[in-house]
Amino acid sequence: MAREWTGIQLFPLATQTKLLELLGDLKTKERDSLTILVMGKGGVGKSSTINSILGERAVAVSAFQSDVPRPVMVSRERSGFTLNIIDTPGIVEGGYVNDQALDLIKRFLLNKTIDVLLYVDRLDAYRVDNLDKQIVKAITESFGKEIWHKGVVVLTHAQLTPPDCLGYDDFFGKRSEALLKVVESGGRFRKREIQGHSIPVVLVENSSRCNKNEREEKILPNGSAWIPNIVEVITKVATNESSSILVDQKLIDGPNANERGKIFIPLIMAFQYFFVVKQVKKWIKDDIAKQPKSSWE
Ligand SMILES: Nc1nc2c(ncn2[C@@H]2O[C@H](COP(=O)(O)OP(=O)(O)O)[C@@H](O)[C@H]2O)c(=O)[nH]1
Ligand SMILES: [Mg+2]
To answer: Where is the AIG1-type G domain (predicted)?
Structure first.
């Protein structure tokens, strides 16, 4: 059941106007609902970003462990338009992708259609590592690589002074490039597939100390008002030429789950016959031969 999206009225007027304009655009494209899936490591600001977009404290935020270890969907309605946002627990634990958490998310999403995937990480991280690759791979294996055509990379903690005398835009460029490379390799995209399907990267600053412009909108060091910007990118991706992702049982089971490995069955049976059955038969025969004859035989 969707509640009224009242948080929108708490935004500065300029933001409200822009958001209502974007919702209006969606309605002209005959979209009266959007479902956004939010994923990423724990503690990167997934829940905070959702709250910022909705303009209310809709999901729990914690500086430490995620307190709700399962996905939650928040739905808000505004003049006949429904926005669904699915918050998920971080899928990384102790340096590994947590398959159980991933399974939980998949089951939660069963029969839902994802219009946009927000892949969240922090802007103020200087390296990408194998773990990032593993997360992207896990998402790709769970929902198919097409999910990235509906993907947006979101970088939080965007109010920062870059290190090493780099300019803000240069730093943002370098960080985006590094992350997009991970997505491209973890999503197993070929060069050809990347062209024309570039994944947008957007900046977010959830802190209450985020700077504001003269219209009271939260702005980034490069001057852009980030809330209208992220919502605009979300609506663009939602309505791009790629189809939304329906999470059905087949998708959850993986490609040809029943077929997988079937061609090996004759091989395995032959192996069993020659190396197991024959050996066991030989042992039995030897045992019989070794057995002392009973006196009555
Ligand atoms: N400064 C700053 N802190 C943030 C930002 N986003 C999240 N946080 C803080 O980081 C911590 C984890 O945030 P949370 O949204 O719970 O992360 P999640 O585990 O990915 O859902 C909380 O203490 C947030 O207040 C941000 O953009 N800037
Ligand atoms: Mg969270």
So the answer is: 31-255
